[in-house]
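To: structure subgroup
Subject: Chain for Friday's discussion

All,

I'm putting the inputs and outputs inline so they're searchable in the archive.
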Amino acid sequence: LQFAPNLHNTVFVLTTENPLYVWTWITSIFSHSPSNPMHIFFNGLVLYFFGTFLERRIGTRKFLGLFFVGGVVAGLAQTGVTVAQGGFGGVLGASGAVAAVLGAMTVLNPHMRIYLYFFIPMPLWVATSLFAFYELFLATSFGVGAGGVARLAHLSGLAIGLVYGWKLKNEGYSVGRRMSASGGGRRRGGL
């Protein structure tokens, strides 16, 4: 759809000009920048590593509910604040929905060992905190759309995930203590 940008924007982008195009609340989650393949790559990578764990533990229905609510709220929050500040633009991508998944995972398994950039080991809660502080710093220092990135969408999605994660935790859900996003690791008594 790069050859028809108006059609792309009408169908797939939640914009400040047309926030009541309700279908874009959903379609924008599945659309990514036609000129930046890294956008969908990184969203897909995070979703692959954390989404599969989370969906297995809480079930498909709850997972999809979190994903869609996180994505919609993130897009609307970014668009609403942009309008309130007198700005204009559009939102697309699953970053807010993926941040919601990350938030829920962080509450349900904060000590999960992950490898930032594939080689820096740290607990998930540390990585999530670094992400949140980075996004908050950029949003407050340079604006909610700093660098052409929907910073507030990321933070809104993360907030939805954290709240939903607490709800799930209070209902008795857990993602498990020994899981590692590296795919490896040793079991007790094993090699």
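Points worth raising on Friday:
The radius of gyration is 17 Å.
Residues 60-84 form the longest helix (25 residues).

D.
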